Automatic annotation (TrEMBL):
Keyword annotations of the record: Membrane, Transmembrane, Transmembrane helix
Record lineage: Bacteria, Bacillati, Actinomycetota, Actinomycetes, Mycobacteriales
Annotated TM spans: 17-35, 66-88, 122-142, 162-182, 189-214, 234-254
One Pfam family it belongs to: ABC2_membrane_2
Entry keyword Membrane: yes
Protein's name in the database: ABC transporter permease subunit
Amino acid sequence: MLPDVYTRTLADNRRGLLAWSIGTATVGLMYAAFYPQVAEGGMADTVQNYPEAMREALRMNDMSSAAGYLGSTVFGLLLPLLVTAFGVTFGARGIAGDEESGYLDLLLAHPVSRTRLALQRFACLVTGAAAIAALVFLAMLAVRSTADLDSIGIAEFAAQCVHLALLGTTFGALAIGLSAALGKRAQVLGIAVGIGVLTYIAGNLAGVIGADWLKYLSPFHYYIGGEPLRHGMQWADAAILLAASVAFVAAGFLRFNRRDLRS
């Protein structure tokens, strides 16, 4: 009998998922631990000498507070780029990788629909994004007291990590939707990475260039624009990321069901 696609995919990718989770959490922990040196070493004052446009783009206007520091470096730059990379690479491989290797034909020869196959692959991606965010959350709690991050509540850390998981899911949904629609991993990677770069720039530079409306086209704005580290869960922003994920997946899978896989 055909093994459960979800379980089989997690088992086949367990090393990669573990590496992404541990690696991302370690990066977050290391940079979060630098906060006392930044706060006491005068870096916050030095940053104030940077051009205002640069400070605004990199969210560096408040490097002296724990939320400002983490919102600029750890959760504003490093971790979102890492989870975006995870979502794009995992999603691109989800359908297109199997199609290019010929494994997809073997799977679909069993009594499993294309939609069920694609949905279970997407569920694995969501599980991976959630696992990464969960380990990041535990890493932040582990270093919270020793790194003087107590001004950020546990609920706020949890909210930011939920937003992190949703960001990875959104770009993963984009990639797996393209993967299902196009069937060419190189094309999917190129398009998804291009969209990721453009939306990151739009989310961070929209105000600088006087086009504030551009940030509303960027998943990164809904990920961190409401500052979950200060204000907790931003339910409207989270709902928009979730809705975008559903739309990307639905559009891609609709095309997947109609596409001739032999061409």
